[in-house]
Amino acid sequence: MNNPAIIIEELSKCYRIGIQESHDSLAGAFFGFLKSPWKNYRRYRSLYRFDELENGTGPNCQTEHHDILWALKDVSVEVKEGEVLGIIGRNGAGKSTLLKILSRITEPTFGKALIRGRVSSLLEVGTGFHPELTGRENVYVNGTILGMTKKEVDSKFDEIVAFSGIEKFIDTPVKRYSSGMQVRLAFAVAAHLEPEVLIVDEVLAVGDVAFQKKCLGKMNDVAKSGRTILFVSHNMGSVGSLCQTGLWLENGGVCMQGDIQSVISAYMDAVVAGDGANNPDEWKRKGSGEAQFSRATLLNAAGDPSQAYKMGDSIILELGIDIHSPLQVIDHIHVGIRRSETGTNILHVMSQDSGLIWQGVSPGQRTIRVEIPECMLYPGSYRVALLMASGVTQLDYIEDAMGFEMRENRVSQRNVPFAYYSNSAVVHVRSQWSEVEPIDGSVVLNVAFNE
């Protein structure tokens, strides 16, 4: 059994939010303390009184301009050597705070975090770079910080520069780099200097699509080499394909930990269930209102409610419709699907595809089902829009009715995860490949494949 590379025990981090006195100098801070010694004594002492902070009864919780925010609270996690851990959660869940503590950028309020081995972190654009130094000089500075000798950095330098793709600017001061160029060089350094633990935040979203693909491929290589990776991303497709285990943080605490697909499934179910966009009472509508969508439910092939599908699954959408006024015709009912991360429209289906047109419509309630068989959308998050019209009259339009998640599935013989391509393609179609005129002496490798 692998030894633990990271041990986190009852880790907590709190911040005081509100109005804070600022001092421009050490002397100013000293005299500020002298002006109100008792107030400052109570403030600093309260930081070490966990029971009072937790219950909101400490002096620091009662002051007029201060409040306590627990970015992390009682987090206990163990990560094995060679494990690839995906950390997911909503914005403000504590993901970045946890990585900053592990990277020794900030100190915890309580608890401890132990890491065995060298750590390389990529948390923000340009982290660890000195703006006045050139890219070449920053590579050596970062290598030295990681504990590497100049000889070790020399042996990796050409690979780092080639991977970053900024050879022409390697001797230019970093302050003149764009954010994308900084990310390229920072990731190249972090991934090639062979740390035992690699920590990567959502910063990869800054790079262009081609470089993101290179990064995911490199992280796959790093993972296969037996090094430990902590990866934070809102792209569930990337997390699911790269990581083995998952950690779901919610409101600063551990909500779930375990197999990555189980964690993603539970997280997406909670996100969709708690999303106001899935509540008809909170839908933002446009239209005449003569007929409106009353409910929308996503179902799987068995007819059970679902918010997560695998590539190749059939997606069923059940729509409830309330007709408030007599109408001559309802001839347009549309369902649009777009990518959550980019907002790009992906699919559009409508009732006329099956010849479903209502004429002489009386007030009342109706229910329809829309099925997209064997949906081959690439892994990722998607949102659903609904539209209903009578001729040129828009009856009801809901831009963001609900969301769902697509996940990896074995629908092809390719050995590269679909998530690797999810930023450059969105739909997979089956294709047949064969060699027409084989070269003499060549060998065709046929890979066994079961759908």
TrEMBL record:
Pfam family, one: Wzt_C
Key words of the record: ATP-binding, Nucleotide-binding, Transport
Gene3D superfamilies: abc- transporter (atp binding component) like domain, P-loop containing nucleotide triphosphate hydrolases
GO cellular component, one term: membrane
Top-level taxon in the UniProt lineage: Bacteria
UniProt-listed InterPro entries: AAA+_ATPase, ABC_transporter-like_ATP-bd, ABC_transporter-like_CS, ABC_transpr_TagH-like, Bact_Polysacc_Export_ATP-bd, P-loop_NTPase, Wzt_C
Protein family (similarity comment): Belongs to the ABC transporter superfamily.
Name recorded for this polypeptide: ABC transporter domain-containing protein
Residue ranges constituting the ABC transporter domain according to the UniProt record: 48-276
